[in-house]
Amino acid sequence: MIRTTTYYTRGFFLISILMSSVLFKVHAQVSRQLSLEACVQNMVRCDINVTSLENLELISRLNKRIQQTGLLPSLSASGSYNQFIQNSSISYIDNILPTSTILNARSTLLSGSATASIDVTGLGRSIYAVRAAHYDTKDQKLETIQQKNALVLQVADLYTNCILSELTVEQLYKRVEDSKRLLQIASTNLTSGAGDSASFLMANINLENDKIAFQEASLAFAQLKESFSILLGLPISSELSFESLESTILHLPSKEEHVPSSSMDLLRLEFQLKQSINLKRSTFFNLFPSISFFGGYSLSDQRFQNGIFAQNKAFGPTYGLGVSYSLGQVKNAIHQSRIQGLTAENLSLQLSRQRMQKQAELNHLDRTSKHLLSTYDSRLSIAQASRSAFEKIEMRYEAGKINISEVRNSQNQLLLAEIALTQTLRDRIINHLTHAGDKLDLIDYISGTQQ
Fold first, then answer.
1. What tens digit of pLDDT does each residue of 78-95 get?
2. Among 167, 217, 221, 447, which residue has the least CB neighbours within 10 Å?
3. Contact, 271 vs 264, CB < 8 A?
4. Domain range 2-77+120-286+329-447, its CATH number among 2.60.120.20, 3.30.310.50, 1.20.1600.10, 3.40.50.1370
């Protein structure tokens, strides 16, 4: 019975080694080469959302230019050329004999004028409308950056999850190899009589469970890579490779480099408040009558011909003042001014509240960053100690001093320690980018071009 069990064990080991070798061969083809910066740049080139955001920003700038046209005067010019020819006859009796006279008249009129006018009241409206459009453009630019940052964080989240999944596959592969050694030890002890069949069966079950966990983790990793390929606009069949989490952290700039003093959320509220104030001032000019000045120069040249040539020229400047007043416009301006005043008041309240909330959020991010840094050092020590403890417990198990359950507990602690270590690295990257993305353009920040 013992001999039969030994043959079964050897055959089982051969099959296990072949299966795990094939799986790991596929897994080992992945080399860490794709950086987070490269992924972000590829997203910028391929993602249609980025193009849509850039178009919205361009529309905002064009609206500002439209408002600027109200600062220009109105120019007009006209010219005309008219020619009249008149033939007439006059009959009368002179000294009893009839007499007939034919008159040919030719009249030529050449005239032209150029006028420039400006609406003083409209000019005041346009000045504040341009200022409001200026702040709207700045607000739209920050909104575009914020939405791009959200896309960058989405890329970073999936990117780090891919690395985390890949590392989990590696750790589970090591666990499978460890379980193989434990099964071999159990088989040897069973053959020599130092162990029992229960330990052998338990080691066999543990190996099967570890193989299943390894295969499931490999499938999850493949699905994550497919999702990441779709996000970057790459073919699903693309073989993606990633940098290590340690390299990704090292390539990120420091948060303290070129960081503005204010959050983009606060700046946007400030711009919206200034926009509302300038719109209110622009509307205020509708309470006054529309006053316009105009001036120009006119020239006319008229010629007559009826046997005798005559010419009449006239030229000189023209200027004047126009005033108009609309009661409906005044009533509308009063309501519009009231609306903009209430909007500005609400924005001012939001700005005050947002300042306190944003400060609390930044303080939380700072505390989390420090906590993750200290936690990483602790988890690194725990992972190293767990690996060392497992190796010693494995030696004691081989010597027959402890049972398989104690080894399994140590194995579980090692896996949890290694996964917690990689998860901490991943959390550090996301926290770092979230903190920087509150004030900076993450696309420029990651590429190192942030001004």
1. 777 676 665 555 555 555
2. 447
3. no
4. 1.20.1600.10
